[in-house]
Structure formats: C-alpha cells, structure tokens
Amino acid sequence: MIITTTANIDGKEIIEYKGIVFGEVITGINILKDIGAGLRNFFGGRSEGYEQELLKARNEALDEMAERAKSMGADAVVGVKMDYEVLGADNGMLMVTCSGTAVRLG
C-alpha cells in the first residue's frame, strides 16, 4: 500500500477514487513517561518516552487507515494529512488522526 501526502504518485495513474479514509488512535501516556518528561522539562533535553509513544501512535493510525483503504479495494492513499491532539482532564491521552483519499492505480 502506497501512502503519500502528495496528490498523485509519480509514474502511476490513478484510475479510480474510492473515497476518504481515516485512521484514529487514542493512547494513554503512563506515569513513568510523565515523570521522565517532567525531569527533562526541568533540566532540558528530549523526552524519548513521549517520542516513542508518538511514533507508535502515528504508525498505528497509518496502519489503520491503510487497512480501511485496502478493504475498499484501494492500492494507495493520497493527500494524507495527520493531526495530533492532547485529551483528558489531566492531558494524559494522546490522539493521532490521519486522513487521505483511497485510490486504485492503473
């Protein structure tokens, strides 16, 4: 499955538009990552725990979108956009969403 942010794929012809597809993931950030991030915020540096959680959520959202496109008979998803949001009363949840247009290639 080709997934791209561009409207077309070089060397490929889009022969059918199947529709818009989405992928959504909501994940909790655990207390140990919060403590580590708090220390890095105070002393400086990157939060590897949060970065890994974000990478995992992003990949899961893309995989979910690809599966939905595949179930529609698509070969690719074009025009992909991603969005990130922090949710929950204590901002302890991370939501990653992606959307794009499922297409069939010739």
UniProtKB/TrEMBL annotation:
UniProt-listed SUPFAM superfamilies: YbjQ-like
Gene3D superfamilies (UniProt xref): Hypothetical protein apc22750. Chain B
Top-level lineage group: Bacteria
InterPro entries found in the cross-reference section: UPF0145_dom_sf, UPF0145_YbjQ-like
Pfam families: YbjQ_1
PANTHER family: UPF0145 PROTEIN YBJQ (PTHR34068)
Family: Belongs to the UPF0145 family.
Protein name per UniProt: UPF0145 protein HLB29_00475
Source organism (scientific name): Peptostreptococcus canis
